[in-house]
Amino acid sequence: MRVLNLYLVRHGQTYYNIFNKLQGWSNSPLTQRGIDGAKDIGQRLAEVPFAGAFCSDTGRAIATAKIVLAENQVSNIKDPKPVSYFREEFYGYYEGTDMNQAWYLAAGPHGLKNFPQIVEKYSFDTAKDFLKEADPFGLAENHEEYWNRIDQGFALISSDESLHDGDNVLVISHGNTLLSLMDRYAAGRYDLSERPANGSLTKLRLVDGQIEVVSYNE
């Protein structure tokens, strides 16, 4: 049995975060607060020896990863490995759209008004499906497309022969992805009405490729 300790960090604050815009595969730069937040979590993790570092290939995730690794005092890794599998959910036509407006359009045909109502009545996966249904181009990811991609990311880490039992691995992630992971694997242990903070830490264990949740949004 091989256990890998995954340290999932949500990227630092971006301008789209301030503007309340959906930011999946699209990207906006880190704000100064986002840069400072990345430095803060980097300092919190400065004594954690990382054997590997992965991030989505979006600019905000790469920038956050480099800042976190620059603060680390006990790892030889200076640059993360960008992986497209770890991108945020793809919102298709609604990329860059006001978050409330996009979810209103997705929820409306089902007699609901917003994202929280979809999740309360159905699930996070259903929200993905509803947004794809509302996308006039049909490009937004439904839950099957989303999880097929994300699962490949964790499989990539699990199959990395440079990683050994007990190793620590840094993964720079995204807000909705962290919520989705908790919804799928945390068995209701956390209040998911609160989004994970920019620069927050969530810990997972990858046990022979299977995900176990250790903590959320620290």
Automatic annotation (TrEMBL):
Q: Which InterPro entries match?
A: His_Pase_superF_clade-1, His_PPase_superfam, Phosphoglycerate_Mutase
Which cellular component terms (GO) are annotated to the entry? Answer: cytosol
What is the residue range of the signal peptide feature? none
GO BP annotations, alphabetical order: negative regulation of glycolytic process; regulation of pentose-phosphate shunt
Q: SMART domains in the record, alphabetically?
A: PGAM (SM00855)
Annotated positions binding substrate: R10, H11, G12, Q13, T14, Y15, Y16, N17, R60, E88, E89, F90, Y91
Going by the UniProt record, its keywords in alphabetical order are: Hydrolase
Protein name (Swiss-Prot/TrEMBL): Phosphoglycerate mutase family
Organism name: Ligilactobacillus acidipiscis
Q: What is the lineage of its organism?
A: Bacteria, Bacillati, Bacillota, Bacilli, Lactobacillales
